[in-house]
Amino acid sequence: MNRKSLITTTWITFFIGTFIFVFFSKQKSVEMFFLYLMISAMYSFPLAIGNGLLNDMLSKKYSWVAETRKRTVLGVICTLLLNVALVFLINYINFIVIQKQDFANFFRGTIAINNWFTVNIALLISAILHAKGFMEEWKKSTRKEVVEQKLIARSASAQFESLKNQLDPHFLFNSLNVLSALIDENPDQAQYFTASMSNIYRYVLEQKDKELVTVEEEIGFAKTYCNLLKTRFEDSVNFEFDVAENDMKSYVVPLSLQLLLENCIKHNFATPQKPLTIKIYTENGFLLIENNLMAREQVKESAGIGLSNIVQRYSLLTQQNVFIEKSTDFFRVKIPILTQKITAMNTQPSDESMAYNRASKRVKEIKGFYSNLLSYCLVIPFLIFINLYTAPKFQWFWFPMIGWGIGLGSHAFQVFGLGRDWEEKQIQKILDKTNQKNQKNGNL
C-alpha cells in the first residue's frame, strides 16, 4: 500500500468510527470513541489492503485493455471470495473473540445481518477500486494512442514534405538537360523552350506545396509539358489525351503526370520511323499513362525518383494503390483518382483512429456497467437493512434484489458476453466484404 492509499484509508477509518460513535454509541466517552476507531480500523485496513493488493495483482497479470473480459470475470470471482473471507474473519474476531458472543449465533440474527451488510459494503469499496483501476488503465491506453497518432502524423507530414521537395531539383535538372541538347541542335527551339520552361517551372513552384490538385489542372499542365517535349523530339513522340469530363474535378497528387511523362521519355528510345506513343486517359477511377515499350539500354542505373516518389506520396495520402503494369508491348502506370481533397493527416480512416473510436465507445459501455453495479451494491444492502430493521417477518427486499440482479446480469452479458462477440464479428465481416470489393474494383 502506498502512502496516498494509507492516508485515504486512515481518513475513512476516522470518519466511519466517528459516525458510529456519534449516532450509535450509547456511552459517550473518550474511551468508547477510541474503541470505535479501533473497530473501524480493524475493518477498514484489512479490507482496503486486501482489495488493493488483489486489484494490483490482477492488473499486473491481466490487462484491462487487452484482456477486458478475463480481467472482469476474475476480478468479480476473486473479489467476492476475498471479501467474504475477510469479513467473516474480522466479524469472528470482533463478535466471538472480543465480544465473547456465542458462535452458534454467528450465522443468524444480528451477526448474520452484520455479515451480509459488511460484505456488501466491502464489495462496494472493492468495485470502486476496480472501476478506478479500469479507468486509469484506459486513460493511459488512450493517452498513449493519442501520442502515437501525433507521432505518426508528424512523421507522415515530414516524409511527405521531403518527397515533395525532391520535385524541385529533379524537374530543374531534367529540364536543363533537354535545354542543353536543344542549344546545340536548334537554337531557335532552345529559346522557345526557355520561355516555356519558365512558365512551367512557375506551375511547379506553385503546386509542389499542395497535397492534391484537380485532374483538370494536372492535365492542363501535362499538355503544356507535352508541347515542350514535342519541341524537343518532334515526330518521334506522339501524345494522346482521353480524359473523361466527369473526372476533371477529382484529385491527383501534383506533378505526377510530369514525372511519369519524364519516365516514359527517359526509359524508351524514339525515332520518326518508330515513334513513342504516350496515352493519357481515365478508366475505373484511375488516371492511366501508357506507352508502347521501346526500352533503351541504360548506361547507368536509374535513380528511380519518379515512380518511387509517386508511389510513396500516394501511400501517405490514401489506401488505394498505384499499379504498374508491364508487358512485351506496353508499359502502364495507374494512379488513383481521389474524390475528396483532404490533407495528408485525414485522408483515410486509419486503423489507429478506428481502434481509438472503438476503444472510446467500449469505455462508455463498461463505465455504464460499473455504474449499474455500484448502484446495485449501494442500494440493495440499504434496502435489506431497512427491511430487516423495520419488518423482518416480511422480507420484501428479495423482489428488487432479484429483479435488479437479473437486469445487471443481462447488462454484464451484453457488455462482456457472447452477444458482444457476435456483434463485432458481424461488423468485421461487413468491413472485410467492403475491403474485398474495393480491392477488386481497384484491380480492374
UniProtKB/TrEMBL annotation:
UniProt KW keywords: Membrane, Transmembrane, Transmembrane helix
KW rRNA-binding (keyword) present: no
Residue ranges constituting the Signal transduction histidine kinase internal region domain according to the UniProt record: 158-236
Residues of the 2TM domain: 358-431
Manganese recorded as keyword: no
Entry's transmembrane regions: 7-27, 33-54, 74-93, 113-134, 369-390, 396-419
Coiled coil location: none
Protein name: 2TM domain-containing protein
Organism: Kaistella pullorum
